[in-house]
Design brief:
The protein is an alpha/beta fold and 363 residues long. It contains ten helices and 15 strands. Strands 14-13-12-11-7-10-9-8-15 form a nine-stranded mixed sheet, covered by helices on one side. Strands 3-2-1-4-5-6 form a six-stranded parallel sheet, with helices on both faces.
Length: 363
């Protein structure tokens, strides 16, 4: 069991979650350096944390510290540059935020760089470590709802914010099966200028190789299960089988109707992300539970190549590919078959910006 040297770029709100996740696992990781362009924020966030070195330049940090693991928590438009640095300086493990890129071509280069340089890379789709979502997967795999036929994923936030999460969780819940084709609808330009640019709403349908179908909705028209204050946790993954269903959300709730539940709907509540829920909020949960679980699995994968991380680059790339296929389907008004050739696709964000009309107000 190894102990791995870590260098990290970014100490914003999400960066602090990653930072604390590494610090919570001193038996597996040694945080040797942290980099941020904002010197004052860097000083404030690292106060009392005993980090040996700080930097304002990522390449200099990697050149001087030569870490085993490079974590960067930056905006999506610099993902590829950071991965190129990781390959140049021989890191063994790479951890960063979603979405993995801003185009399928970038995502493919990231995937290929990791494969070519033997880098074990993970994307932070860490909500699958929530007890509620774990329970959904366990029930689906147990056969207690019969044969899985359909998966539905809903999130109030837009495609590049939480849609990427819920596409990943759909793949995960379906055992990593590959998609055969997709059909999608998108509309609305309001979120295209966001730091995580996306259409305002997406509705997509996916057929997987094992015959399971999935529907993904993300954005302002997606089904809502809570009030407006719960916007960021108003998300749900539901797996339907021939004899029941199981669902979980990021508020920590779980429900199921199973072959052995005696016609009763099971219901459980566990820790979630809602910062208004006593003893639960995202800051507490991610720092004390989810991020360390996610990062400990990275250490296990670095120890043993057979222990592939559930957030690995291949599942992340395929999720990104499906989402881009859904956008292409909407723009070209056709079914899109997978896999996609990343070299033949147009710039999806440019096409969305040019071709989508403004979203009319809801009445």
């Amino acid at each position: 069991m190894g102990r791995y040297r870590v260098a990290q770029v970014g100490v914003g709100s999400r960066g602090l979650v990653h930072l604390n996740g590494f610090l919570a696992l001193p038996d597996r990781f040694e945080l040797v350096a942290v980099c941020d362009l904002d010197a004052e924020r860097l000083r404030e966030r690292l106060a009392g944390k005993n980090i040996p070195a700080t930097y304002s330049d990522a390449e200099r940090m990697l050149a001087e510290t030569r870490p085993d693991v490079f974590c960067f928590v930056t905006q999506p438009n610099v993902r590829l540059d950071m991965v190129r640095l990781a390959a140049r300086y021989g890191v063994k493990g790479l951890a960063f935020e979603k979405p993995m890129a801003t185009s399928l071509l970038e995502a493919a280069e990231i995937r290929d760089l990791c494969r070519d340089h033997g880098i074990k890379e993970v994307v932070s789709h860490q909500q699958k470590y929530l007890t509620s979502l774990q329970r959904v997967k366990q029930v689906a795999e147990s056969g207690r709802i019969g044969q899985v036929t359909q998966i539905e994923a809903h999130c109030q936030a837009w495609l590049s914010q939480l849609g990427t999460h819920y596409m990943d969780y759909t793949l995960w819940a379906n055992g990593g099966q590959r998609a055969r084709w997709v059909v999608g609808h998108v509309h609305g330009r309001g979120k295209l200028t966001d730091s995580h640019p996306s259409p305002d709403y997406m509705l997509g349908h996916v057929l997987f190789e094992n015959g399971v179908r999935a529907t993904l909705q993300c954005g302002y028209l997606a089904p809502a299960y809570m009030g407006k204050p719960a916007f960021w946790v108003d998300n749900r993954l539901t797996v339907f089988g021939t004899h029941g269903y199981a669902w979980g959300d990021t508020e920590g709730r779980f429900g199921a109707l199973t072959l052995d539940s005696g016609n009763q709907v099971l219901h459980e509540e566990g820790p979630g992300y809602d910062a208004t829920k006593p003893g639960s909020g995202w800051a507490t949960q991610e720092r004390s539970l989810l991020q360390p679980l996610y990062l400990r699995d990275l250490a296990e994968w670095l120890d043993d190549a057979a222990k592939v991380h559930p957030c690995n680059v291949d599942i992340s790339y395929h999720g990104y590919e499906i989402l881009e296929g859904l956008c292409l389907s909407a723009l070209d008004h056709t079914r899109v078959d997978l896999p996609l050739d990343p070299r033949s696709g147009a710039d999806i964000l440019a096409r969305l910006s040019a071709e989508l009309p403004e979203t009319p107000p809801l009445r």
